């Protein structure tokens, strides 16, 4: 069926449709553009960070200051969660193992699961909440109150002074905190085993360590290093690129926690795939 | 319509014998997205003078001084500081130029995590000329005495009032003996008495340290107290330039609205 539309009306409809289409296209392209810009920003930030890390002028004092801050601030929290991790894991697993008459493998099972998976991931997630948010909020407020610009004006590279030191401190301190949490997890597990049983600490730990070897520690330590780097990088990136208002400080801290936690889980997934492929 | 727009931006400074420009800006453009903030701006800062830059909020005053220290990159134009074009020099050379410039931020920008002493130590320890601890301590004490606050040396910035923070911030900029001072709204957010004290301090710094200064402000009392020469910015352009007298006696509506 042929519809007769006056030429002026047809032109108007076509113009309207074209406008609608172009508005949608512009909106979509803007969203894509924002994602690509963010991605480019992250790449540039990381490149700049790597370049500054290997520059000759390393801020040694600030690096140790950050190491102390990360360790000192998170130690009590990690101590509590590490102990609880081992305790809960033991209390939950014990009845099942007793049912199958495999109670003797309890220390080994807890040690392997703590060292290979639970210790690194849970500690890293706690550090993502504590360290990444702290870095995001601190650098964000420094940005808002022009402290980063003041640093730049006094011939100090803020990237070198603020970011490199924090990322490196997190990369070194978080694996150490994870090992510490593992140790306390085993202590917690021994406490758990003694709630309904009686086993000496020496016997418990010797049984636990008889089931784990260097090959269990290696992938755990390696992925912990990546967890630390990711937490430091995300915290600093979000804080360093915070907006102008005070609201952006909260946003930076919040998004640092969310993104760091997500990336920790993604890194863990990749690490598990690699260790599985290599049959480690 | 500009009724009293200056014919030349290169007017002689009002003080006798001050003719050597330490900062020379030519045809500076700066925009953020589609918003043009500075348009073909040219000005000179002469040795030893206090140049007050007036203008409404958003007229590009702060952007101008941030371009001078290289915190913002200009779109085009040249900015010569001591005959070095800061828009094209390397980062290393820019750092050397920055060591000759003191920048007083609007918010003070004191490092929250450091004491007053550590705040003042920070730029001193990063100077090209290495100083020993005694020299550093002496310089810190001298700077604090110059701003009248030697007693707060071990306090944290959070323990100081707004006026005190501004003074300490000023001490942090003068501690490195700058040749040029850039003040970004030095009296904003302060009570009239403290504002007057800051204005007096600006003059004292000029006399004692022989600095040349650009003072960004919309506080007319501060401008009256400190200006050797004034420039009015409007929509990113130089609207009027001249002595305080010329501004005070201007019949231009916009200028008059500032100098009520």
What does this protein structure show overall?
Chain A has 280 residues and is mostly helical. Chain A has two domains: 1-54; 59-277, no CATH class. Chain A has eight helices and no strands. In chain A, α3 crosses α6 and α5 crosses α7 (214-240). The longest helix of chain A is centred in the first third of the chain and has 47 residues, at 7-53. The radius of gyration of chain A is 26 Å and the shape is extended. The mean pLDDT of chain A is 89. In chain B, strands 6-7-8-3-9-10 form a six-stranded mixed β-sheet, sandwiched between helices. Chain B has a four-stranded antiparallel β-sheet with strand order 2-1-4-5, with helices on one face. Helices cover 34% and strands 25% of the residues of chain B. Chain B has helices at 61-68, 91-98, 116-125, 133-146, 162-174, 192-209, 220-226, 244-248, 253-258, and strands at 21-32, 35-46, 50-55, 76-81, 84-85, 101-104, 180-184, 212-216, 229-234, 237-242. Residues 1-16 of chain B have low confidence and may be disordered. Chain B has 260 residues and is an alpha/beta fold. Chain B has a domain at 49-74 and 99-241: P-loop containing nucleotide triphosphate hydrolases (Rossmann fold, 3-Layer(aba) Sandwich), CATH 3.40.50. Chain B has nine helices and ten strands. Classes of the chains: A mainly alpha (280), B alpha/beta (260). The interface between A and B is medium-sized, with 14 and 22 residues.
Topology (elements, then pairings):
The complex is a heterodimer of chains A (280) and B (260).
Chain A: H1 7-53, H2 60-99, H3 106-144, H4 147-153, H5 158-195, H6 201-210, H7 214-240, H8 247-277
Helix pairs in contact in A: 1-5, 2-3, 2-5, 3-5, 3-6, 3-7, 3-8, 5-7, 7-8
Chain B: E1 21-32, E2 35-46, E3 50-55, H1 61-68, E4 76-81, E5 84-85, H2 91-98, E6 101-104, H3 116-125, H4 133-146, H5 162-174, E7 180-184, H6 192-209, E8 212-216, H7 220-226, E9 229-234, E10 237-242, H8 244-248, H9 253-258
Parallel strand pairs in B: 3-8, 3-9, 6-7, 7-8
Antiparallel strand pairs in B: 1-2, 1-4, 4-5, 9-10
Helix pairs in contact in B: 3-5, 4-5, 5-6, 6-7
